[in-house]
Design goal:
The complex is a heterodimer. By secondary structure, chain A is α/β, with parallel strands linked by helices. Chain A is built from 19 helices and 21 strands. In chain B, α1 crosses α6, α4 packs across α5 and α7 packs antiparallel against α8. The chains are: A alpha/beta, B alpha/beta. At the A-B interface, β8, α10 and α13 of A face α1, β2, α2 and β5 of B.
Chain lengths: ~525, ~260
Amino acid sequence: MKREILLGDEAIGLGAIHSGMSGIYGYPGTPSTEIFEYVQRVTKADGDIHAFWSTNEKVAYEEALGMSWAGKRALVCMKHVGLNVAADAFMNSAVTGTNGGLVLAVADDPGMHSSQNEQDSRFFAQFALIPCFEPRNQQECYDMMFEAFEMSEELSVPVMVRLVTRIAHSRAGVATRDRRPQNELDPSKEIKKWTLLPSNARVQYKHLTDKQPELLRRAEESTHNELRLAGKSGVLVCGLADNYLYENLESDHDLSILSIRQYPLPAGKVRELVDHVDELLVLEDGYPLVENMVRGLFGLVGVRVKGRMTGEIPRTGELNPDIVREALGLPALPTAHAPQTELANRPPALCKGCPHTDSFRALNEALNIFDNPQVFSDIGCYTLAALPPLEAVHSCVAMGASIGMAAGAAHAGYSPAVAAIGDSTFSHGGITPLLSAVQQHVNLNILVLDNSTVGMTGLQRSMSTGQTLDQIILGTGIEEDHFRIIEPTPRNHEANIEVMREELAYDGPSVIVARRACIEALKHGIS
Amino acid sequence: MVEKNIILAGVGGQGILSIAFVIDNAALDAGFHFKQAEVHGMAQRGGAVQSNLRYGDSEIYSDIIPTGSADLILSIEPLEVLRYWHFLRPGGWVVTSITPYVNIPDYPETDELLTELAAFDNIVMVDTAHIAKAAGNLRAQNMAAVGAASELLDFSEDQLLGFVEKLFARKGEKMVAVNQRAFKYGRAAGLFFRGLVDGGMPRLAAIKLSAKLAAETIDPEHAGAWAEALGADENKLETVLAEKEAVACDQAAAFA
């Protein structure tokens, strides 16, 4: 049997390839990026799978839905907050249903290793009324892709595979299978299914709700949802939390355990467990979704449900074997007698020679004529400018939010309203708020940090850099006099401050593009 | 029964994932179960990074090593060891580079840091910068570190060297040779350090001496002679350290 060393993310990618996928779609975002990168890397040679980064997650989702419409299998992958961006297409794709298999692999980030929240995508699956698989190891990441594509085609429903950072970015040996051939082109002719006018949408939504008993039946019968009844103390454990449970159990334990890795939640199995036990610990890496469903608004009669809502598990943050050990009431393991020391933190920082450093040094100086100026910023390497020594930016909320928020602040009378955004984030979510601000003639200053790549996630291709970026910006109708381009270098420092000061003094929308390639990209010969 | 839990530690960009590649492949090749969790994304930009690597002959559940279960901390950077002390089980080992990576303003004094590390019983200290330079490329410090730890792993030197080759093959023969040399020098330096300590030399003295010897000449066979020659005598050590050039490892007798 062939075993390959794969990250959880890579196992998802290879599982999709071997399931006969014809296209992969996505926008880079930790911890999901490596799904796409893996497929891109291994299919480079044959070129029979469409693998090209999309401008944002919504576009990616719609492209994947189009491939499904055409009868072929598509995988769309993103991080949890990316699904917020794609939510419009995602929610409605559940109503249209699919033609070729459509699988959404979404990677959550409990503990916020590289994210601005730890939202739990299982809510989205529940919200959209679609099935969700939650693998606990790399082998299941691979295997579940086959099931997910099959189910999507058989029941005409998009299927979610939910990952968390710890499985996305962990490697193990994975046994692989033969590759299934891709589907032939077979476009859907069911016009009403795809045209969600209210009259059609009502019919389609009814179809979706009618599928629910079948989805539930499958979850009840799934081998991924295993119930083992033993003693009166029970554990309900979801996804990879299963690993943390078994890490701590001896083989002679007496716990009754229900492991869940396929949703909708199999109510029958949960009922069997609840009827058998006096107390129930719920372990899930994410929000207390299942915990709250089981407890309900008023609790269960005769069964104490424990978890994140009752303090046995911390309300926030990533699960780990230590937390689970304590929740199980087991004593902490002994540790080596090591010295207790004060330890200096080593936070991430901009690389030496990074163009962003020069941009923000100039911006800091240009703004020092104002009293405590605040700069709205965005998501990328340049968010690190919020930390010392630069401390140049003062917000980071959502992709593209810097421009919209600066506009709102300007509407309220705040001046100078300054936004700083990278070239790829601009293409993802910055174009529409810029268009809005220019058309409203808002008094704001936008600094677009064009380093020609998607830096933070590992040098993916940027959609709007160089001339493309300039043309987009000019296309919003901005006055040409207030569209400036600078090169952020130490040598240009004074001149760049001057440009920034001039535009800060202007009462209207202005855009300064700070253009210099990412030094990592140069090092890797990408730019 | 084999079960090994290793925390690989360092700073983003130092190459702990290359160490992981070598051990992962050796584990897979040996038919072990293994899991190896790593850090991607924001932290890679010069921040503290770690990887939890676990292998053994029965199923590995958690991708994360539980507190009190680490058998080994393998660090390419001395300060980073301190971040993971508490994961070590009683009797667990630390193998660390003594080459500081200073990219923060409040980095401690190197001497104080090394003194603190040297107070730990089960520690192997190696001067990875010294070794990597001798091997031909300062970036090979990660391979020097894994070489120094290799004796504590469950694979032969040849097995591991085979995966060093696989890792660097696409960068050409020269890079393969440099990195394999760094691994071998690192392995010798690790064993030499342990030999000195077992022979009665204080750990700080042992690492200072190791750093003074020509890396390509270090041979654990000579550890006993050096320990006997210098013992805990600081003046004798100072004499060695005062030499203008690097000292060959077989010259212990000259300093007795």
